Amino acid sequence: MSAPSSVTIVGASLAGLRAAETLRRDGFDGPVALIGDELHEPYDRPPLSKQVLAGNWAPDRIALTPSDKLADLDLDLRLGARATGFDLADRTLRLAGGETLEVDAVLIATGARCRTLGPPREGVHVLRSLDDCLALRADFDAAPDRVVVVGAGFIGAEVAATARTRGLDVAMVEALDAPLSRVLGPEMGEVCAAVHRDHGIDLRTGVGVEGFDGAGRVERVRLTDGSAIDASVVVVGIGVVPNTEWLEGSGLALDNGVVCDAAGLAAPGVAAAGDVARWPNRRFGYSMRVEHWDNAAAQGAHSARALLGADDPYEPVPWFWSDQYDRKIQLAGHVRPDDEVKVVTGSVAERRFAALYGRGGRLVGALGFNRPRHVMRYRAMIEQGAAFEEAVAAEV
Amino acid sequence: MRIVVDFDLCESNAVCMQIAPDIFEVRDDDFLYILNETPGEADRERVEECVQRCPKQAISIADD
Ligand SMILES: Cc1cc2nc3c(=O)[nH]c(=O)nc-3n(C[C@H](O)[C@H](O)[C@H](O)COP(=O)(O)OP(=O)(O)OC[C@H]3O[C@@H](n4cnc5c(N)ncnc54)[C@H](O)[C@@H]3O)c2cc1C
Ligand code: SF4
After folding, report:
1. What value of ipTM does the predicted structure carry?
2. Is the domain of A179 the same as that of A250?
3. How far is B34 from chain A (nearest CA, A)?
4. Residue among A46, A294, A376 minimizing CB distance to B14
5. For position A1, what pLDDT does the model report?
């Protein structure tokens, strides 16, 4: 494949920026456009539920790259510009406001947005963008009587932890019997539940949210078991959906994400990366869409190289971290709730341990609580295709 | 090129060590050690990759 005449990246966040940096580092000197609908220069999202929400960091600390380095990339950077349509056959990209761009290679990195519960209401938040974070932080600054977090997934758990650390009264409602049990399995889900309860969270599991009450601003969360919780602030953390609506009718295949091949291409000269991309990960033998920071950074780089002609498959061992209270939780691999789980080092009671996940005799995952170095070693073992028993017996 | 790590941000997850084990090492004591603080220009690409892959944004390059 010959090098593209230009590359247009849609989505100016982690995957999009890492793609642009990689194009330049690999010597591509043609025009590169980076188009994003937010007004901010690319920034880092993980601190939005941690340091920025806690009030410990000013928002200007989370730039993904300093402005001068961004300028060095010599991009056609268009902020506040939303793509509304793409046509694969005539290679045109439509922007809100009516402009149409002729494009050659395209990299789709439009990420994901939060699922919501009901129509917008004052006091009910989601958390995805810096603007979301500052709005929520302002509500926390007003010392609310109680914060109710809906959904005890990673984002919900971090928001609950940050709110608690700020001294707020927090209740968390989770539809599953234990937080994250659909990801980590029931046993490790109970460990997560215990961590929240240790820190004084009023955790309600196995119950859903029926709706919100209040004249205007939210005052109460109604639950499916007939009970209700008074709430001055609500944060809804019930997952995300990939931003693909703008690609409907484009000629690209969409299926809970932009469907790509093993290298990251959705069509000749069109790649996707990050939270929006679905691709067959050959290491695991099935297709996945990963909503983790490390994946957005790595796949952004990989898909950029695919546009420059590289055809090696993208087959990472996914890796994720979450900081809650003083615990650093990390997960490597791709685990399922029915995988075999074994604690191999440390103690669950002390909340400092590593646990391994096995499936069909193979090591498929590693979970660590305050064990970052161990998780990375096990990640390497997963990469090498280690047998489960071998990993359990290994000295790490 | 001089490597600067903000040790208040670093959480010893060894992402950098996977990319450049000759420059970064997380030891058994769970601390990150910089094995070569001033690598040559030939290593710039790999160090830049470490900067861009460090999930805690803890690594930067000073050109002084
Ligand atoms: C609060 C929070 C905390 C997190 N914490 C962690 C963590 O601790 N560990 C971890 O591994 N991961 C964490 N993540 C996940 C991680 O941040 C994401 O996986 C990562 O941001 C994905 O990057 P992306 O570039 O693929 O997508 P995004 O970051 O979602 O960026 C997509 C960009 O495209 C823009 N866009 C969308 N549609 C259009 C359009 N039509 N036209 C133009 N622009 C468009 C969006 O506005 C956005 O700027 C966290 C996420 C959040 C929100
Ligand atoms: S990648 Fe970053 S956080 Fe991880 S060990 Fe290296 S410097 Fe520390």
Report:
1. 0.91
2. no
3. 16
4. A376
5. 56
